[in-house]
C-alpha cells in the first residue's frame, strides 16, 4: 500500500508544550521543513504555574502523513502531549473573527441583518463602518465572511481554530 | 561580590562536563569562548584536541562517540566557528550520533544586534540538531548541560547544541549536580510484551524469513549487538545489514548475506524481495535500501522494531511495530522464544536456504582481476586480509571506495565501522578516524578514502601529527569523483561534467609536508608491501594507491528500480534504461 493514493483528511491536533522561546519555531519549522500543511495554528499559555502552552494545529494529509506529523511532534523535546482530536472522539472547535465592513445605506442595513442571523456582535461602529465579532466553527466564520464580501467587507482578522475534547477528561 | 558557593559560568561548565564523563573535547578557540579556554588551561581532567577546522571537530566527536558508545563533545566559537560546525551536526543528526556541541555566542545584551561574529546558531541548527539551547542565565547552565547530555544519549541519539553567550560563562552562579537534574524527556525503552509475543509467533511461522538490521542496533550498544547475534543464531535465519548496521552481526557468519540496498549483494536484495517475513531491527527503510517503494518486498509481513515512532510507517507500512530500545526488545524476544520453543518449518527453511545459496552462487561482488592495474576491490581485500587480526577500526569517506569497503570488508566487530551514511559527507572519514584514535590510542585506525573526499578535510593531517594520532589513511586514487563519474556514465550518457580533477597534490609529498609518512603503490604487486610498511610505523601515514579509474560499483539498483532488478555488472547494464525521471529522489 506504500505508494497508494489515499484520501487526504483534515485533522485537529492539540499539542501541550513547554512555554519557552523557540518552541513555536520548532513546531512551525517541522511543518515547513517536511512539507506538511498548516491550515491553522493557534498558541497561548494555558498553565502559568507549570509553564505550559497549548498549540492547536489544523492540518491535512493521508493517514500515513498524519501519523508522521504526530510522531514528529512527539520527538520534539519540549513537547509533552500530542492528541489527535479528530480521531480520539468527539470534540468542539471554535474560531473567532473580527470583520470590518465599510458601507452605507442599504448594504449597511443588510450587513447588520446578516450579522444578527450569525449572532455576530458589532463591537465597533462609525457612520460608515462596523467591526463584527463572530464566533463559531470554521465553516460558519467562512460563510459569514463570504456573505459580507458584497456588503463592503474590507478587513478580516481570524484567530485560527482552538479545540477541546468533549466529556469530563483532560488532555 | 563573590559568594563562596558560586562559581564562574566557565567553571560550572567544565565541572558539569566532568560530571557527565567527558574526557576529551574537540575544539577551536575564538573570542566568544576565551573564558572557557582560559578555564580549560587550568585543569587536566579534560583533554582538548585542537583541530584545524570546526567541521572536523564535529566529525572527530562523531568518531569518538560511535566507537565508544559515549557522547562526543565539541567546543567552538560564535559566528563562523559555529557555522563551520553545521555540516558535522547535520551529519550526526542523519546518522543518530550522540553529541553535545558547545558554541560561543555574543554577550546576551548584544544578541540580535548584528554584533561582531554573531550568528543565530540556535535558529540555524534547529532542523539539524536533536535539540538546542540558548543559555541566558549562569544559574541555568549546569542544568542545561546535564539535560543536553541526557537528550543526546536517550532514545534515538543525536546532536544537541548549547549556545553560550560570553557573559553567561563569565558571570557567577550556582552549580547543580546531575543527580539533582530531572528531565521530562524519557523515551520508552521497553517494548510492548504482547506485540513482542506476536512478533515471535510470526517469526516462528516464517517460511522465507530475513532479518534486516540497521544502525539502531549499533546505537543501542554492544549488548544489543550480542543479543541480536544470539537471536539470529537461535533462529538460524538469514541476516542482512544496512550500511549503518555493518558490524552489528559478524560479517564472517554464514547466516550473513552481506549488505543490502543500492550496492548490496544479490542474495541480500533477493531475500528481501522474496521473503515472507521481514524482521527489521533498528533500520529505517531508507530510500537507498528500499529501491522503488511500490515494488519493495511485495509479499512479506513486516515487523519493525525501532525506538523512534516516527521511523515506523514513514516510508513503508508495516504489519507489526514495536517501539522500544532494541537491546530490551531482543532480550524479551529471546525469552519468549525460549519459553515457547516454537516449532519452525524446517522443510520450508531448507528450501529457502537453497534458494539463497543459488543467489549466493552469482558471486555478485566478484570483479575482474588484474596484474597490471590495482583494482580498488583488490586493494581493500588485501587491506582486510593483512589487518583483520588487529581488529582495526575502519572509517571511510564518501564515494565508490566507501561502497567497496562496505562490500568487501566482512567486519566481525560492532562499533569498528564508521561511515557517513545518511548525509553522505565527503570529508567525514579523516576527522572521524582522528576521534576514534583519540578514544583508542593503541588501536589500528584506518581511513579508507577517495582522492577527492580526502581533500575536504586534509588540513587535519596537522592535527594528527600534533596530537600523535597514528591514523592510517589509504587513498584509492582513481583520478575521479568516481561515484559521480559512475552515475554520469550510467545515467547521463557518459558526459563526465566536472567529475575529473585535472590536478591533484602529490599525496606522498603532502603527507611529508604535514610531518606524516607518505607511501604509494602503483601496481598490484606493490600493494602488500605498502600496507606492511604502513603498519610498521607508529605515526600518521597516507598511502596512495593508484587504482583503476574506470571501475564501477556493482551490483547496483538503479534509481527507480526494485530489488529484483539489480544491474550486476558492466555487461549487464544495457538491460534497462535506468534513471527513470520519476525517481528524482535518489541522489549520488
Ligand atoms: C554513496 C552512498 C551509498 C549508499 N548505499 C547504501 C546501500 O547500498 N545500502 C545501505 O544499506 N545503505 C546505503 N547508504 C546509506 C544510506 O543512505 C542510509 O544511511 C542507511 O541505509 C541507513 O541505515 P539504517 O536504516 O540502518 O538507519 P540509521 O540511519 O542507522 O538509523 C537507525 C534507526 O534505528 C533507530 N534506533 C536508534 N537507536 C535505537 C535503539 N536504541 N533501539 C532501536 N532502534 C533504534 C533509529 O530511530 C533509526 O530509525 C549509502 C550511503 C552513501 C553515502
Ligand atoms: C560534501 C560533499 N559534496 C559532494 C558530494 C557528492 N559526491 C558523492 S561521492 C562524490 C565523489 C567522491 O570522490 P572520491 O572521494 O574520489 O571517491 P570515489 O568515488 O572516487 O571513490 C561526490 C562529489 C558529497 N557526497 N559530499
Ligand atoms: Mg576518486
Automatic annotation (TrEMBL), chain A:
Record flagged with keyword DNA damage: no
Family annotation (InterPro entries): Acetalactate_synth_ssu (IPR004789), Acetolactate_synth/TF_NikR_C (IPR027271), Acetolactate_synth_ssu_C (IPR019455), ACT-like_dom_sf (IPR045865), ACT_dom (IPR002912), AHAS_ACT (IPR039557), AHAS_small-like_ACT (IPR054480)
Metabolic or biological pathway, per its Swiss-Prot or TrEMBL entry: Amino-acid biosynthesis; L-isoleucine biosynthesis; L-isoleucine from 2-oxobutanoate: step 1/4; Amino-acid biosynthesis; L-valine biosynthesis; L-valine from pyruvate: step 1/4
Positions of the ACT domain: 12-87
UniProt EC number: 2.2.1.6
Keyword Magnesium applies: no
GO molecular function: acetolactate synthase activity; acetolactate synthase regulator activity
Family: Belongs to the acetolactate synthase small subunit family.
Biological role stated in the UniProt entry: Catalyzes the conversion of 2 pyruvate molecules into acetolactate in the first common step of the biosynthetic pathway of the branched-amino acids such as leucine, isoleucine, and valine.
Quaternary data: Dimer of large and small chains.
Protein name: Acetolactate synthase small subunit
Native source organism of the sequence: Magnetospirillum fulvum (Rhodospirillum fulvum)
Source species taxonomy: Bacteria, Pseudomonadati, Pseudomonadota, Alphaproteobacteria, Rhodospirillales
Automatic annotation (TrEMBL), chain B:
Gene Ontology biological process terms, A to Z: isoleucine biosynthetic process; L-valine biosynthetic process
Positions of the Thiamine pyrophosphate enzyme TPP-binding domain: 398-544
InterPro entries cross-referenced by the UniProt entry: Acetolactate_synth_lsu (IPR012846), AHAS_TPP (IPR039368), DHS-like_NAD/FAD-binding_dom (IPR029035), THDP-binding (IPR029061), Thiamin_PyroP_enz_cen_dom (IPR012000), Thiamin_PyroP_enz_TPP-bd_dom (IPR012001), TPP_enz (IPR045229), TPP_enzyme_TPP-bd (IPR011766)
Domain Thiamine pyrophosphate enzyme N-terminal TPP-binding: 7-122
Keywords associated with the record: Amino-acid biosynthesis, Branched-chain amino acid biosynthesis, FAD, Flavoprotein, Magnesium, Metal-binding, Thiamine pyrophosphate, Transferase
GO cellular component: acetolactate synthase complex
Pathway where it operates: Amino-acid biosynthesis; L-valine biosynthesis; L-valine from pyruvate: step 1/4; Amino-acid biosynthesis; L-isoleucine biosynthesis; L-isoleucine from 2-oxobutanoate: step 1/4
Molecular function per GO: acetolactate synthase activity; flavin adenine dinucleotide binding; magnesium ion binding; thiamine pyrophosphate binding
The Thiamine pyrophosphate enzyme central domain, residue ranges: 196-332
Protein name: Acetolactate synthase
Organism (species): Magnetospirillum fulvum (Rhodospirillum fulvum)
Amino acid at each position: 500500500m506504500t505508494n497508494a493514493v489515499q484520501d487526504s483528511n483534515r485533522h485537529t491536533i492539540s499539542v501541550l508544550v513547554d512555554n519557552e522561546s523557540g518552541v513555536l519555531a520548532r513546531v512551525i519549522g517541522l511543518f515547513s521543513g517536511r512539507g506538511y500543511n498548516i491550515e491553522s495554528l493557534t498558541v497561548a499559555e494555558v498553565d502559568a504555574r507549570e509553564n505550559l502552552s497549548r498549540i492547536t494545529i489544523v492540518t491535512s494529509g493521508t493517514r500515513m502523513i498524519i501519523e508522521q506529523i504526530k510522531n514528529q511532534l512527539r520527538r520534539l523535546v519540549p513537547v509533552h502531549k500530542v492528541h489527535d482530536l479528530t480521531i480520539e472522539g468527539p470534540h468542539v472547535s471554535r474560531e473567532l473573527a473580527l470583520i470590518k465592513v465599510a458601507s452605507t445605506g442599504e448594504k449597511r442595513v443588510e450587513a447588520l441583518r446578516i450579522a444578527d442571523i450569525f449572532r455576530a456582535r458589532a463591537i465597533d461602529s462609525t457612520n460608515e463602518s462596523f467591526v463584527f465579532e463572530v464566533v463559531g466553527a470554521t465553516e460558519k466564520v467562512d460563510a459569514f465572511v463570504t456573505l459580507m464580501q458584497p456588503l463592503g467587507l474590507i478587513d478580516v482578522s481570524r484567530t485560527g481554530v482552538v479545540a477541546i475534547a468533549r466529556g469530563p477528561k483532560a488532555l | 561580590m563573590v559568594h563562596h558557593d558560586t562559581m564562574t559560568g566557565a567553571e560550572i561548565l567544565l565541572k558539569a562536563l566532568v560530571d557527565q564523563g567527558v574526557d576529551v573535547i574537540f575544539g577551536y578557540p575564538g573570542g566568544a569562548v576565551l573564558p572557557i579556554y582560559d578555564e580549560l588551561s587550568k585543569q587536566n581532567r579534560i583533554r582538548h584536541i585542537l583541530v584545524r577546522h570546526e567541521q572536523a571537530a564535529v566529525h572527530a566527536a562523531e568518531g569518538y562517540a560511535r566507537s565508544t558508545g559515549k557522547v562526543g563533545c565539541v567546543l567552538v566559537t560564535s559566528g563562523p566557528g559555529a557555522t563551520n560546525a553545521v555540516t558535522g551536526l547535520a551529519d550526526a543528526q542523519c546518522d543518530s550520533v550522540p553529541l553535545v556541541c558547545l558554541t560561543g555566542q555574543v554577550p546576551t545584551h548584544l544578541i540580535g544586534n548584528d554584533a561582531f561574529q554573531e550568528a543565530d546558531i540556535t535558529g540555524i541548527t534547529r532542523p539539524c540538531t536533536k535539540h538546542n539551547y540558548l543559555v541566558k542565565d549562569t544559574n541555568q547552565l549546569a542544568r542545561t548541560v546535564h539535560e543536553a547530555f541526557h537528550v543526546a544519549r536517550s532514545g534515538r541519539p543525536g546532536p544537541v547544541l548549547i549556545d553560550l553567550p560570553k557573559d553567561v560563562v563569565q558571570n557567577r552562579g550556582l552549580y547543580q549536580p546531575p543527580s539533582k537534574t530531572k528531565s521530562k524527556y524519557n523515551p520508552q525503552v521497553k517494548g510492548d510484551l504482547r506485540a513482542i509475543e506476536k512478533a515471535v509467533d510470526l517469526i516462528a511461522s516464517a517460511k522465507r524469513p530475513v532479518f534486516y538490521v540497521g544502525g539502531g542496533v549499533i546505537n543501542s550498544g554492544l549488548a544489543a549487538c550480542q543479543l541480536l547475534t544470539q537471536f539470529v543464531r537461535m533462529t538460524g535465519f538469514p541476516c542482512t545489514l544496512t550500511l549503518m548496521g555493518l558490524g552489528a552481526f559478524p560479517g564472517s557468519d554464514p547466516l550473513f548475506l552481506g549488505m543490502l540496498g543500492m550496492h548490496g549483494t544479490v542474495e541480500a536484495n533477493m531475500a528481501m524481495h522474496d521473503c515472507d517475513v521481514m524482521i527489521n531491527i533498528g533500520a529505517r527503510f531508507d530510500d537507498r535500501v528500499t529501491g522503488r517503494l511500490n515494488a519493495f518486498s511485495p509479499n512479506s509481513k513486516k515487523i519493525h522494531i525501532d525506538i523512534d515512532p516516527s521511523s515506523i510507517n514513514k516510508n513503508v507500512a508495516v504489519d507489526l511495530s514495536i517501539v522500544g530500545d532494541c537491546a530490551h526488545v531482543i532480550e524479551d524476544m529471546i525469552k519468549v522464544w525460549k519459553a515457547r520453543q516454537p516449532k519452525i518449518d524446517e522443510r520450508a527453511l531448507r528450501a529457502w536456504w537453497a534458494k539463497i545459496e543459488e543467489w549466493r552462487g552469482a558471486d555478485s561482488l566478484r570483479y575482474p582481476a588484474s596484474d597490471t592495474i590495482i583494482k580498488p576491490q583488490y586493494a581493500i581485500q588485501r587491506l582486510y586480509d593483512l589487518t583483520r587480526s588487529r581488529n582495526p577500526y575502519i572509517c571511510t569517506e564518501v564515494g565508490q571506495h566507501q561502497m567497496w569497503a562496505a562490500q568487501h570488508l566482512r567486519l566481525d566487530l560492532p562499533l569498528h565501522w564508521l561511515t557517513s551514511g545518511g548525509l553522505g559527507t565527503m570529508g567525514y572519514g579523516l576527522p572521524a578516524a582522528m576521534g576514534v584514535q583519540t578514544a583508542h590510542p593503541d588501536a589500528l585506525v584506518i581511513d579508507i578514502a577517495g582522492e577527492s573526499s580526502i581533500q575536504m578535510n586534509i588540513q587535519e593531517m596537522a592535527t594528527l601529527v600534533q596530537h600523535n594520532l597514528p591514523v592510517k589513511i589509504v587513498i584509492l586514487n582513481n583520478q575521479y569523483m568516481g561515484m559521480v563519474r559512475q552515475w554520469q556514465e550510467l545515467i547521463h550518457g557518459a558526459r563526465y561534467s566536472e567529475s575529473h580533477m585535472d590536478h591533484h597534490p602529490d599525496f606522498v609529498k603532502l603527507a611529508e609536508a604535514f610531518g606524516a609518512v607518505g607511501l604509494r603503490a602503483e601496481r598490484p604487486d606493490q600493494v602488500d608491501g605498502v600496507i606492511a610498511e604502513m603498519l610498521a610505523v607508529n605515526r600518521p601515514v597516507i598511502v596512495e594507491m593508484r587504482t583503476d579509474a574506470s571501475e564501477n560499483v556493482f551490483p547496483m539498483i538503479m534509481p527507480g528500480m526494485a530489488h529484483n532488478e539489480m544491474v550486476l555488472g558492466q555487461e549487464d547494464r544495457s538491460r534497462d534504461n535506468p534513471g527513470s525521471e520519476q525517481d528524482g529522489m535518489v541522489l549520488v
